[in-house]
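hi! just following up on the protien thing from before. the input was this:
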Amino acid sequence: MEQLQNEKLLISQVSDLDRVAFYKTTYAHVAGGVLVFVLFEYLLLQSDAIVDFALSMTQGFKWLLMLGGFMFITNYAERMALKTTDKSKQYLAYGLYILAEAFIFVPLIYIAAYYLEAGPEMLNQAAVVTLALFTGLSAVVFVTKKDFSFLKTGLTIGFFIAIGLIIAGSLFGFNLGLWFSAGMCLLAGGSILYQTSNMVNKYTTDDYIPAALGLFASLMLLFWYILSIFMSRD
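and the predicted 3d structure came back as:
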């Protein structure tokens, strides 16, 4: 009975031992998500039909359709993971989101790996920088113990502005450029702070899968735009 009660407590209300166990479980699921993403990405890139289709969806109105589908799946997966306590459904939501991320990354990684001279090295460098920033920003939350939930409004406004710029760029054919990627890196960094703060202050001990999904989403957003910045230099 006591264990069932503790499962409903916020992470900030449980013992240090339970809190550390939750953090370890959550980050293990983030790491597992990254490994599954790499596996999905590898498998998708082996199919010429999938690669050709993904590349065909990167131009103009088709890119908007692809982004719209990705946002729909993202919203569905997040809602499913948060609204159910069934672990199998939560894992299904997490896996669905990882697959969607892997698919939308196909054009970017394919171009980086096969069209750019320093592509493989660039992918490794972008991954290292992303991991370092993710670790550093997460550490800020744990060290300062500050609640970064106040970032939600700013992040929401920022993402709506970004979506508007992406739509305008797709419809009118202009390149958003390096500064847009840099701005999106800042938004992704803010999202990492916000998601990590939620993990500390908003979730219960049983919410490690939704927490991992939120962190994974922010991590992949940061990776996308760091890789975009690296590719723009080539």
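The chain has a mean pLDDT of 83.
The radius of gyration is 18 Å.
cheers
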